[in-house]
Amino acid sequence: MPSMRPQADAAPVFDRHGRIKAGTVVTADFDASLVDYRDTLGLTVVEAGAVPSDLAASWGAPAAGGARMALLAPVSGNGCFLRLVEGAPVPGYRPARSFGWAAFEITVADVFALHARLADSGFTVIGPPKKVAGFNNFIPMQVVGRGGEILYLNQVLEDMADLDLPLAAAPVDVIFIAVQAASDRAATLAFQRQALGLEEGGTFAIPYGVINNAFGLPADHRSTLTMTKVGRLPVAEIDQYPPDATARPRPAGGLPPGNAVISLGVDRLDRVAAPLLAPATVHPGPLYAGRRSACVAGPDGEIYELIEMGEVGNA
Fold first, then answer.
1. CB-based burial label for 241 (10 Å; 0-12, 13-18, 19+)
2. What is the mean pLDDT of residues 246-253?
3. Cα distance between the two ends of the chain
4. What is the pLDDT of residues 65-110, one digit of tens each?
5. Nearest to 19 by CA among 279, 240, 287, 298
6. Phi, psi (5° rounding) for residue 153?
7. What is the DSSP letter of 170?
8. For residues 85-107, b (16+ Cβ closer than 10 Å) or e, as one string?
């Protein structure tokens, strides 16, 4: 099926305002999770060590300082990363039952082949790959990892009417949408627009299997979601969660379990209209590449790590 995207020489640079640079997963089973992401998903470890104390402070999670950490990248080397951080088990945490970052949506080359590879891994398939009626843009699959993180592993087929969806350049490639479980969808949308400079995309009401299964709702129950974007670049999916959802349980001074942090490119930190959790700093390593970064918290306490791209990155 042909793509609607522009020719490659007209494509914007990867690092720009609104780009998802990384997703951070907190897991109590660090060694096994690392094997899952490296050997099953085929990501490459590009940095490993302990979380620096100043980085943990920037997250508003000083207790995470010194925790084991690994930064992984797809073999395409396009500039997107997935970061694992070790954390203690959090009693009461259940995937897709609390507010905050609910899932990372990742583009994959062959979702059916990947599904076969997951059989002997630490990932549990909660939504096997299948085409969805009315959606011809991708073939979705949903899994839960050892840390209680949810990944949407989607084989992109073509762009949407108002969004460019990335074709995979590796078996498992970039995070292209961050899925937010919101207590108040309108409030989260307003925050992303006003504080972060994102744009409102489409709003949809759909039978959402992940939500319906997690809350024991009928299969035809519809949830409302709104997309945010920068131009044709997708950024987040804001899902209105049911009344039975709760605040994400979180250890004192630590990161939330599962899908913990989204690292997002912004043109300038001084344009962010939300209080920083700590002063902007520069951290070493391939994710930050000498750029300043700082974090803000959204309406449900979700952590946005903002990496300053500069005006040139917005071209």
1. buried
2. 96
3. 29
4. 999 999 999 999 999 999 999 999 999 999 999 999 999 999 999 9
5. 287
6. -105, 100
7. S
8. bbbeebeebebbbbbbbbbbbbb
Q: Give me the mean pLDDT over the 116-144 stretch.
A: 89
Q: Where are the domains of the chain?
A: 14-314
Per-residue CA distances from 86 to 34, 115, 161, 249, 258 (Å): 10, 26, 39, 16, 10
Rounded distance between C-alpha atoms, residue 96 and residue 215, angstroms: 9
Token pair for 243: 């009344």
Q: How confident is the model at residue 12 (pLDDT cuts 50, 70, 90)?
A: low
Predicted TM-score (pTM) of the model is 0.93
Question: What does the alpha-carbon distance between residue 198 and residue 55 come to, in Å, rounded to a whole number?
Answer: 25
- With respect to CATH, is domain 14-314 assigned 3.10.180.10? yes
CA dist 18 and 46 (Å) reads 23
Exposure of 219 by Cβ count < 10 A (0-12 exposed, 13-18 middle, 19+ buried)? exposed
Torsion of CA 20, 40, 25, 105, to 10 degrees: 40
Q: What letter does residue 269 receive in the DSSP assignment?
A: G
Q: Tokens 């970039």 appear where?
A: 174
**At residue 268, what is the residue type?**
R
Whose CA is closest to 143, among 125, 155, 131?
125
| Residue 161 to residues 201, 228, 309, Cα–Cα distance (Å) | 11, 14, 27
List Cα–Cα distances, 286 to 35, 45, 274, in angstroms: 21, 11, 26
Give the whole-angstrom CA distance, residue 45 versus residue 34. 9
